């Protein structure tokens, strides 16, 4: 009878230990199982570049997508550059077959945001002209990437 | 924005917790080892100390290498793997005892004990794990060897089909003879091909995600981009036909489809993959006797309970006998199931540890997979992202295929249960897989040098402005 008790104790004790291990393991990573999603590293990386040259107060505060699959999307502009492309670490992830992974980026310049093509396959257009070097973007001027059109707004 | 940038560095590392959990895992394995002896003859087995010391030494060594060479790696992956591996060794030892008991009753020669051998294989596996962590300092370097690893993977995959080297064991021709032992090269091929898939898909994903026509809300890929998926499909079928290896065939194709889907974010690839899989499965069912038998056994195992369905039925009886809390280690009859040490080790766990034990084991696998996918999400480069996702998914798919097969959810295909099953190639390559995952995890969780700089720069700037403003 005594040995029966020992066997039962060992059996349930082992199962309890196994589950304690699982529970303890889950607790150590609880913070990223629920909430506190993945850290926004791309933003951090690009922030480094912008902080070197302090952006002056540029009038544009928002980037609004007016045409294409993402029409209606708005991004508020801060001091960090905005990357545009299909790569999932872009600020604005374009779901556009004619866009490249890293298509273009918007950088805060001295007194206006600059658009810069990052060697895309199909090019970036500001108004009717193709962007070949960093070009200042006036408010309301359409930037076209593939089928996506966006503009800067106040 | 800036509040979030602190997150990557915060709480990274956590090697102390890893060591604590590894110690816990080893302690549980020792208790389980002792429990087998207590269940069998009421005494703690004499080998307990040696076994515990061996495990503590191996996993402790693995931990020290991670501490030195991948300090920011996820703290949970290694302990979970250690727990699974330790438990696997206990189950193999327990099944050794069952075999010895049966041999004694039949008065035949004692069979070879597999547990000491598996402990040696675990040592080799940990050595391989350490070697990978030390040699591969930067996972992105692996991308350079994409085509080399593709060639090596294909050669390894097809090696068993060559007469003279290949060996047919239990109807499947997936072993090669190296001296006195047999090696299963498809395990190594799995990891090598994943490195290739990841590198290939990262460089080609722009093309592969080009859409041609929209049908029913789904963008179909262009016909000429179907090439790679057809090649992967044909290779899987070749493995199935030449080597009669249902499991690896399914694994390879599944891994390829999911990596293609993750790389391109196109649902159409999943649908095309499932379609091709259905086509392949159906023709395999009609053409090959061994596939048809597996499916028929799955549909009604009890119809052939004494012939082809014997193994599955005995496994199901094992789960049934175990019930919720199991018979207790050493108290069941898990030795009745053929190949209980390899494919059917889950049935042995189900019988002696019950549903509670099976769930704990499945959760441990789920945790490893979750941590792996999390590393993939956090990884900064696309190659690492895709490789981590592929490696984690491969693990998940393998566990699903064998546990699903053993429990009768899907037709049974012979693959090993990672770290638990007896088998040298499997345990070594799964440890290598974990080494790669930890390498990527280390890179993903390492505080980026860039985000540290702007904090300082911004602070300096803030101070500077107070003086500059007087201008």
Describe this structure as you would to a colleague.
- The complex is a heterodimer of chains A (154) and B (471).
- With 154 residues, chain A is an alpha+beta fold.
- Chain A contains 3 helices and 11 strands.
- Chain A is 28% helix and 27% strand.
- In chain A, the strands form 2 sheets. A 6-stranded antiparallel sheet of chain A has the order 2-1-11-10-7-8, with no helix packed on it.
- In chain A, β1 (62-67) and β2 form a beta hairpin.
- Chain B is mostly helical.
- In chain B, strands 1-2-3 form a 3-stranded antiparallel sheet, with no helix packed on it.
- In chain B, a hairpin with a 2-residue loop joins β4 (211-215) and β5.
- The longest helix of chain B has 34 residues, at 345-378.
- The chains are: A alpha+beta (154), B mainly alpha (471).
- At the A-B interface, α1, α2 and α3 of A face α1, α2, α4, α13 and α16 of B.
What is the fold's blueprint, element by element?
The complex is a heterodimer of chains A (154) and B (471).
Chain A lengths: L1 H27 L1 H4 L7 H12 L9 E6 L6 E3 L5 E4 L6 E2 L10 E5 L4 E5 L6 E3 L2 E2 L4 E2 L6 E3 L2 E6 L1
Parallel strand pairs in A: 3-4
Antiparallel strand pairs in A: 1-2, 1-11, 3-5, 5-6, 6-9, 7-8, 7-10, 10-11
Chain B lengths: L1 H4 L9 H27 L6 H22 L7 H29 L9 H21 L10 H13 L7 E4 L2 E7 L2 E3 L1 H24 L2 E5 L2 E4 L5 H17 L2 H19 L2 H21 L1 H11 L10 H13 L22 H34 L3 H25 L17 H22 L3 H20 L3
Antiparallel strand pairs in B: 1-2, 2-3, 4-5
